[in-house]
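Project standup — Tuesday

K.O.: blocked on the structure for the chain from last sprint. Re-posting the sequence here as requested.
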Amino acid sequence: MSKFKAFLKKKDIEISGKRYGIDALSAMAQGLFCSLLIGTIFKTLGMIPALSFFTEIGGYAMAMSGPAMAVAIGYALKAPAMVLFSLATVGYAANTLGGAGGPLAVLFIAIIAAEFGKAVSKETKVDILVTPTVTILIGVGLAALIAAPIGKAAMWVGNIIMWATNQQPFLMGIIVSVVVGIALTLPISSAAICAALSLTGLAGGAAVAGCCAQMVGFAVMSFKENKVGGLVSQGIFTSMLQMANIVKNPKIWIAPTLASAITGPIATCVFKLQMNGAAINSGMGTCGFCGPIGVITGWFAPSEAALTNGAAALSPAAFDWIGLVLICVVLPAILSFVFGQIERKLGWIKENDLKLDLK
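H.V.: unblocked you, prediction finished:
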């Protein structure tokens, strides 16, 4: 057993929740961003006659989502070059065979293929043959066996959430908004979770509300401590920057979470906000404005996953635009600021509890 542990350490194979559930998952989201999400944006831009060339570019980017996810996962697992390059094939197979639930299939299969590839890497004199052979055969073999079941399971869970949200928009608006919003601030990837579950429609809208509440909420309520730098870094990049402060004082998380519990059901019950762009947008919030962009692209050109769930293109009215701005920016800002001030007066939030090191 000691020799086996020494071998794993030598190969940097770390079987842990952090390595697989945080590092790999977060990297997968980045791979999705650089392929499916950006491709969706390009295809939407291509609807403008003068920019029609973006349609083809977007198609190329979207087609590479499987390889991009797998390579990103391999990078997070510190895979050697030969393993990393071989994962492109694994990702393509897993994503294709996994169907709409492909991202979850890619996550599981790419991790296994990468670790086996790392195990044999540079162990023989014909590494250039052995390493890609082992990585690809294990990855594609697993994809053939389990990608479809994993994809169907992910779709089943996602469909239940979306069905429940349609049936009980108020209650599920709160639950989805709060849970996905919390996931966004935690050191895991809410975007990858939403993509894996193919979360679109009304449930996707609630997820967008929750994520925006966390990012805009922390940005506004901590403006006193972090000024413009904090406003931008949290409001446009990530609220995860507050995790160290949350560990020190969990009460600072109350204000943006309460805001998400309010904006979620307003999104589902009042504005009927639906996120019918790429499912990854549901878990992005205001990061790069991807949440609102996903809603907008979904209005004009629904994603394949959204179309499967019954979405259709529409011409948004003024009410839709007003709802988007209120849910994504205005209400989270006002609510989090008010709740934050109440917490400060109660002594739950003290001076510099929200301070970030932005140097």
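K.O.: great, moving the ticket to review. The chain is about 75% helix and 0% strand. The chain has two domains: 10-155, 168-346.
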